[in-house]
Design a protein that fits this description.
single chain; six-stranded parallel sheet; alpha/beta; about 200 residues; about 15% strand
């Protein structure tokens, strides 16, 4: 657990490059699972009024557009997404860096595709800037299991907390009987296996 608990009031969420082409390159996790987890994060941010920053890279190329469901879940954030042109580390894009700074939050939830490129470098930068970072490993993935494992180890060693979608939702809820808990319990339930 991070030194300071992540709550809806002190956290911002950064979803990086959840694009249909890029997601298609991932083999370390099933596409549908990765997609469901990423969308659950966006739904949670909206339900709890957590600032949400979306970014994409070279949408007109092989990476493709952001998931269309993000436009339905977070229309304003989708329209305001930072469209990078080849910049690998999202924090090297002045518009992305400014959007994150504008949230006023230093607890950052980061999920991206791919973990071994699009997640690792912004995470390292955010940590170097003094932020607390939780990386939601199962809302992203990498072209190989080895690449995913090594990138997650690198982020962990640098000081990021590696978490999963379910863990993060439970942490943000704190108590399922509270107002915040009741707002997101159905999002969590949608992710659980149905018997």
């Amino acid at each position: 657990m991070p030194a300071q608990p992540f709550t809806a009031d002190n956290t911002a969420m950064l979803l990086i490059d959840h694009q249909v082409g890029t997601m298609g390159w991932v083999t370390s996790i099933a596409f549908d699972e990765m997609k469901a987890n990423a969308l659950a994060l966006a739904k949670t941010a909206k339900a709890l009024n957590i600032p949400l920053v979306l970014t994409s890279s070279m949408e007109e190329y092989a990476q493709g557009p952001l998931l269309s469901e993000l436009a339905d879940i977070a229309p304003e954030e989708f329209t305001a997404r930072i469209q990078r042109q080849g910049v690998v580390n999202a924090f090297d894009d002045e518009h992305f860096a400014a959007a994150v700074k504008a949230t006023g939050r230093t607890n950052l939830i980061i999920a991206g595709v791919t973990n071994d490129v699009c997640t690792v470098y912004p995470t390292l930068t955010a940590l170097a800037q003094g932020n607390q970072v939780q990386v939601v490993a199962d809302a992203g993935g990498s072209p190989t299991k080895t690449a995913d494992d090594i990138s997650i180890r690198r982020m962990d060693k640098a000081g990021a907390t590696i978490t999963t979608t379910n863990q993060l939702l439970a942490e943000l809820a704190q108590n399922w009987t509270t107002e915040n808990g009741s707002k997101i319990i159905n999002i969590l339930m949608e992710l659980l296996p149905q018997n």
